[in-house]
Input
Amino acid sequence: MKQVPPEKIRFSQGGQVMRAEYFFETGKKEEFFTKAATWIDSMRNETSLADGRCLKHDLSETEQHELMEYVMEQLLPEIKLVAKFKKKRTYLDEYKAEELEAILTMKVFEEFHKFNNVEYLANKQKQYTISAFIEHKAREAMRDMLIQERGLPVNVIRNLKLINDIVQAIAEEEEIRNDE
Output
């Protein structure tokens, strides 16, 4: 393992030593998360970064764990924001909202290495925002939560959502409140 020059070392909030290249810079959110996704991919799947390094081999287990934790700390406010909006849009109670947030957090971190990774994108030229990525995972988390809760297959859940959307559209058109 390579020695890290002192100018490349900074302390994170918990007092741990981390390389400066891995720190979040305010105002560069999308760039940071895109880079962070490549770091996670490199640690999980032993892929090479643009500079040819593989973090699975270059970082110690402790450094890998700390970097993953740091990235997750940066993702949590974004996840909480999407979960909050999902709660308002779907009228979830507090318990269900917490359950959705927990499922969403797991889903995002399990698949975060795919964020803006050309190997996983249908449109190789397009770059997505982190909120769009998390919103997509929120839809999957909501579906998974309903499947767990009701024990129904995915196609039935999709049909129920379609019916619910149609009922809401008709209610808006006829100016009927949702609680009637």
